[in-house]
Amino acid sequence: MANLRDDGLKVFRELLPGVLPDGDVDFGGGFAPELMEIGVESVFGRLWGRDGLSRRDRSLVTLGILIAQRATDELHAHFQIARTNGLTDEELAEVIYHSSGYAGFPAANTARTAAVEAFAEDEHPRT
User: Fold this and answer.
1) What angle do CA 100, 104, 107 make, to 5 degrees?
2) CA 27, CA 34: separation in Å to the nearest integer?
3) Residue 1: which pLDDT band, with cuts at 50, 70 and 90?
4) CB contact at 8 A, 92 and 66
5) What residues does CATH 1.20.1290.10 cover in the chain?
6) pLDDT in tens, 56-66
7) Contact (CB, 8 A) for 8 and 49
8) By its UniProt entry, which InterPro entries does this protein fall under (predicted)?
């Protein structure tokens, strides 16, 4: 059986280059320290690592769900991931426009704000 943690770390690093250091990562400490481990293994290792949908398609699906949930923190990262997966800014704008009809204007506007912040961060990466 594949090591879901290692697979998840690999996928995470591919989707968000430079966010995690090379080698093993210790997410420990603080309140609910296992949450990041669960996310790395189940979301990035098990779901993003699956065949069946391209990463580009997974980005589209994920953005739609996160916009509907108004998951601001996750939207920020997933707009960056969507760019990594080849979606253009024009396509990402269309995702936001389309979501306004299904998730409502406030959710789409929240997504627009998250995208603007994520894109600004991409233009001025952290060192």
Assistant:
1) 85
2) 8
3) very low
4) no
5) 54-127
6) 999 999 999 99
7) yes
8) 4CMD/NDH-1_regulator, AhpD-like, CMD-like
How confident is the model over 14-27, as a mean pLDDT?
89
What's the CA gap between 83 and 38, in Å, rounded?
Answer: 25
- How far is 45 from 5, CA to CA, in rounded Å? 6
CB count in 10 Å sphere of residue 73: 9
Q: Which two tokens stand for residue 30?
A: 């603080």
With H, G, I as helix, E, B as strand and everything else as coil, classify residue 49. coil
What is the amino acid identity at position 91? Answer: E
Instruction: Measure the CA–CA gap between 9 and 4, rounded to whole angstroms.
Output: 8
pLDDT of the residue at 99: 98
- What count of Cα atoms within 13 Å lies in the side-chain half-sphere of residue 125? 7
Residue entry with tokens 């269309």 = 94
The per-residue pLDDT for 126 is 41
Domain 54-127 top-level CATH class: mainly alpha
